[in-house]
Specification:
There is one protein chain. By secondary structure, this protein is α+β, with helices and mostly antiparallel strands. It has one domain (3-95): Alpha-Beta Plaits (2-Layer Sandwich). It has three helices and four strands, in the order E-H-E-E-H-H-E. It has a four-stranded antiparallel beta sheet, with helices on one face. Strand 2 and strand 3 (52-59) form a beta hairpin. Helix 1 packs antiparallel against helix 3. It is globular, with a radius of gyration of 14 Å.
């Protein structure tokens, strides 16, 4: 079985990272909690440039991303968080080994 995923890179306006972080973390948490077809949503921040974020999101299929974008938490993220975004790229990918994830990953 494969899964659909996206790898997103967001470049923020300089100095926006601290304001942006709670907005994206709230969206990521709600997506995994509230959407049956959102299996993972990792938020990564560049160590070299704190205003660069990457998201790795795994969904059941491509249509699941469309469902995600209709959710209240996504709409809030997009409306509020978009003011900090300078540039965004999205790569659509196929996850060939979706079961290769340890269940020991937890929130710190």
């Amino acid at each position: 079985m494969t899964r659909f995923a996206i790898f997103v890179t967001i470049k923020l306006k300089p100095g926006s990272a601290e304001a942006f972080k709670p907005i994206i973390l709230e969206n990521a948490t709600a997506a995994v909690r509230d959407e049956d077809e959102c299996h993972q949503f990792h938020v990564l921040q560049s160590e070299d440039d704190p205003d660069t974020f990457h998201f790795y999101e795994i969904y059941t299929e491509a249509a699941s991303l469309d469902v995600h974008r209709e959710q209240p938490h996504y709409k809030k993220f997009f409306e509020v968080g978009n003011e900090y975004v300078e540039d965004r790229t999205i790569q659509k990918v196929t996850v060939l080994n979706p079961g290769n994830v340890a269940d020991t990953l937890g929130a710190d």
